[in-house]
Amino acid sequence: MQKGLDLKAKENEFRELKEFIDSKRDTKGILMQTLHKAQEIFGYLPEEVQKFISIETGMPMAEIYGVATFYTQFTLTPKGEHTIGVCLGTACYVKNAQLVLDKLIKELGINVGETTEDGLFTLDATRCLGCCGLAPVMMIDDEVYGKLEPKDIPDILNKYRK
Amino acid sequence: MAIFRSHVLVCRGTGCSSSNSEKIQKKFEDKINEVGLEKEVKVIRTGCFGLCEVGPIVVVYPEGAFYSHMTVEKVDEIVEEHLLKGRIVKKYLYEGSIDEDALKSINEVNFYKKQKRVVLRNCGIINPEDINEYIAKDGYMALGKVLTEMKPEDVIQIMKDSGLRGRGGGGFPTGVKWSFAAPNKADQKYVICNADEGDPGAFMDRSVLEGDPNAVLEAMAIAGYAIGATKGFIYVRAEYPIAVHRLEIAIEQAKEKGLLGKNIFNSGFDFDIEIRLGAGAFVCGEETALMASIEGKRGMSRNKPPFPANKGLWGKPTIINNVETLANVPQIILNGADWFRSFGTEKSPGTKVFALGGKINNTGLVEIPMGTTLREVIYDIGGGCPNDKAFKAVQTGGPSGGCITSEHLDTPIDFDNLIALGSMMGSGGMIVMDEDNCMVDIARFFLDFTVDESCGKCTPCREGTKRMLEILNRITKGNGKLEDLDTLEKLAVNIKNTALCGLGQTAPNPVISTLKYYRDEYEAHVVDKKCPAGVCKGLLSYEITDACKGCTRCARQCPVNAIEGKVKEIHVIDQEKCIKCGACIEACPFNAIIKK
């Protein structure tokens, strides 16, 4: 887990999170939404943020950590500047998404779930993105790239390398 | 109200949006303003048209001109020629929609001809972000009828009579489910819409939510009235941002119009709906896990009974229905149970939406009456496999389903027939595979998925699926033994019989069905150490043919220096050193390297 988040420097972010928690005090079962919000604000869920939620809501830290680690969308480590998600849904898989992923692993020199040393890319293998008509598909941030072939990868990556 | 002579419908479903339909819509609006047609032509964003393969799609009415493969660049010409001068730009039309130079009506296009759109009736027709368009298509009439003319027990009776079965996969009769929850006394009951569409390769629920969100809200309110609930939750995947956004808009507009909230239609009935987001856990599609997740906990399933109808969300009586199931409800109320039974089969009335994908020409969303055969769906609607490849199997039911072979293609699709074939309806993913797909690898792929998604609560699922995956990994790497196949079968039966929830109980299905129908492929992997489809890397060998010109490019690309040969002489791959990465194939300009 990332240590030593500068609490002072993140004062505004914590205030925003507190406002969200305060606005939902009457709503039942709010932990998931709080974690979504926190991740939107901080980009990930460091220990300090989980502690903050624990203190604010009175929920035990163990429960918060349990939920944060159960769901794949929550992350405890910071992500790279761009997140690449290669769809490994069935429709993409039967159309050779694995070869696209292999090419990315080779090009970036990292495995799935890792971030490049320069902090530019994080590589994820995702569940079905629901645009099976474009299979095989990958997303870089919010941009969708469809009908991919491994040879398309270097050019696409270069667009983000500047 | 302004009247327009022409309407330009731009598909803003996920598939088309991913290939730029937002920019296309914007370009249409700008160009129409530029030529001064903004009072005559209206641009409308709609949900999915279904034929995602040829997207982005734009349809211009009143002619019904079906433009496919749209790009921003084509917009100028369409506006100037078609909208301004009334000349349809034929070269940009979808070729399946033209018949001897004349325009076919969309219902006559092969892809749509055999379809019957009940659930998708508004998708691709109305603007999902404007409740008035839904109301104009009889929206909220069913809710009005229920609240002002019917007793809750009458609503349940009509649902029972219709024979509607749960479209999320289980196939449990919806009316019966509601009747379990109705008599339970409680200070609060809940209606949950399960929009946690996790099956890889399935996107029907997403398209309904994106194309016709109000139908789902209306149905939830009807269900609430029937069982005596005043609160509803929609549990939707966070991976579906467009669906979430449109649901938010729909809820807000419905509240403004008094179609949700307090005292709806002055009947004294209150109903409110809240959206809850998932966070990427397949198991949350299972109803008890889903409820745990709404409560803000880890999404782990629990034993049933108690059933949700007795003790559900926060211990209160709850019904959980899938998106597609709910989207049928208002139509059944308006048109009656007999109307609904006029489609489909005796035991599976109505229609079913399938997400057709994989190795098929017309990828997309199709809605067919139950009882249509697989062959009709794959060949007449789907157009068969591309590149003249041979059809091998169709996979239904996602990670819980199985593969169906070509000899069973004439089976009429319904809940019971698919189970008899060792697969299941599932939520509606239908993935077609051709001769290039390895069935052992597909089984491994699904097991890999369930191992990853198992919540870990019960041992058979947590440990059992893992052991099965280890065996499959071994087989696909060429280290399998013949006994492994028996072990797989034994494990599969044990897990099916002992796992806690639906995820574990159905997890072995992909292995069982492929072992049953494609045992020869498994045997080729373990006995001959060959992958007949040429997919499993560990079993492939790369070889250089006579077409080699000795350009040395492959040798320079090989990361392990496994290729030897002199300039202008045929090169050779050292099989001992080769790691089968495929870099040489990519590098060769003469297609001289083959994999066997």
Task: Record keyword descriptors for this entry.
heterodimer; A: 162 residues; alpha+beta; Glutaredoxin; four-stranded mixed β-sheet; 7 helices; elongated; B: 596 residues; alpha/beta; Rossmann fold; Ubiquitin-like (UB roll); 5 domains; five-stranded mixed β-sheet; 24 helices; 16% strand
Annotated CATH topology of the largest domain in chain B:
Rossmann fold
| Sheet having the most strands of chain A | 4 strands, mixed
Q: Report the major sheet of chain B.
A: 5 strands, mixed
| Low-confidence residue ranges of chain B | none
Number of domain units of chain B: 5
What is the terminal-to-terminal distance of chain A?
A: 31 Å
Helix content of chain A: 40-55%
Number of strands of chain B: 20
Which CATH architecture of the largest domain in chain B?
Answer: 3-Layer(aba) Sandwich
- Fill in the CATH topology of the largest domain in chain A: Glutaredoxin
Q: Which class of the largest domain in chain A in CATH terms?
A: Alpha Beta
Largest interface: A-B, 41 and 52 residues
State the helix count of chain B: 24
Short description:
Chain A is an alpha+beta fold and 162 residues long.
Task: Give your account of this protein's structure.
- The complex is a heterodimer of chains A (162) and B (596).
- Chain A starts with 10 loop residues before the first helix and ends with a helix.
- Chain A has 162 residues and is of the alpha+beta class.
- Chain A has a 4-stranded mixed beta sheet, covered by helices on one side.
- Chain A contains 7 helices and 4 strands.
- Chain A has helices at 11-23, 31-42, 47-57, 61-70, 90-94, 97-108, 153-161, and strands spanning 82-87, 121-126, 138-140, 143-145.
- In chain A, 44% of the residues lie in helices and 11% in strands.
- In chain A, strand 3 and strand 4 (143-145) form a beta hairpin.
- Chain A folds into 2 domains: 11-70; 82-161, Glutaredoxin, CATH 3.40.30.
- Chain B is an alpha/beta fold and 596 residues long.
- Chain B has 5 domains: 6-109, Glutaredoxin (3-Layer(aba) Sandwich), CATH 3.40.30.10; 131-340, Rossmann fold (3-Layer(aba) Sandwich); 351-434, Roll (Ubiquitin-like (UB roll)); 439-528, Up-down Bundle (de novo design (two linked rop proteins)), CATH 1.20.1440.230; 541-595, Alpha-Beta Plaits.
- Chain B has 24 helices and 20 strands.
- In chain B, strands 9-10-8-7-11 form a 5-stranded mixed beta sheet. Chain B has a 5-stranded mixed beta sheet with strand order 13-12-16-14-15.
- In chain B, helix 17 (439-453) packs antiparallel against helix 18 and helix 18 runs antiparallel to helix 19.
- The model of chain B has no long low-confidence stretch (mean pLDDT 94).
- Classes of the chains: A alpha+beta (162), B alpha/beta (596).
- Chains A and B meet through helix 2, helix 4, helix 5 and helix 6 of A and helix 1, strand 12, strand 16 and helix 17 of B.
